[in-house]
């Protein structure tokens, strides 16, 4: 999944850096790392719910469908973070 969709991962990582930098009160290396890790952990963790449900139903998601759920989860968190900027 990581090697097949390199451009998608690069775009998502770049967008995560931008969102993390915009929403940070002060930009530090540790803060950026934790923010980026948190964004990816949230997005992938939330995406595992439909992955598990469809797997239990006998219709597992293909890589494109899983990446679509990761993108939606990431957008959900990014919009929420950007919405609370003072």
Structure at a glance:
The chain is mainly α and about 90 residues long. About 80% of the residues lie in helices and about 0% in strands.
Layout of strands and helices, then pairs:
Elements: H1 6-23, H2 29-56, H3 63-83
- Derived from helix and strand composition plus strand pairing, the structural class reads mainly alpha
Strand runs, count: 0
Distance between the termini: 37 Å
* Structural shape: elongated
What is the residue-mean pLDDT, rounded to a whole number?
89
The helix content is over 70%
Order of helices and strands: HHH
The biggest sheet, with number of strands, parallel, antiparallel or mixed sense and barrel status, is: none
User: Which ranges are low-confidence, i.e. pLDDT below 50, for 5 or more consecutive residues?
Assistant: none
Instruction: Classify the beta-strand content into a percent band.
Output: under 5%
Please tell me about this protein's structure:
By secondary structure, the chain is mainly α. 78% of the residues lie in helices and 0% in strands. Helix 1 (6-23) packs across helix 2 (29-56), helix 1 packs parallel to helix 3 and helix 2 crosses helix 3 (63-83). The longest helix is centred in the middle third of the chain and has 28 residues, at 29-56. It is elongated. The N and C termini lie far apart (37 Å).
């Amino acid at each position: 999944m990581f090697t097949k969709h390199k451009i998608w991962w690069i775009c998502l990582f770049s967008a995560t850096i931008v969102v993390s930098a915009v929403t940070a009160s002060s930009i530090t290396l540790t803060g950026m790392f934790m923010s980026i890790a948190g964004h990816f952990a949230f997005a992938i963790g939330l995406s595992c719910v439909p992955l598990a449900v469809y797997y239990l139903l006998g219709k597992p998601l293909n890589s494109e469908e899983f990446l679509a759920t990761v993108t939606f989860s990431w957008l959900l968190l990014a919009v929420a973070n950007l919405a609370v900027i003072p």
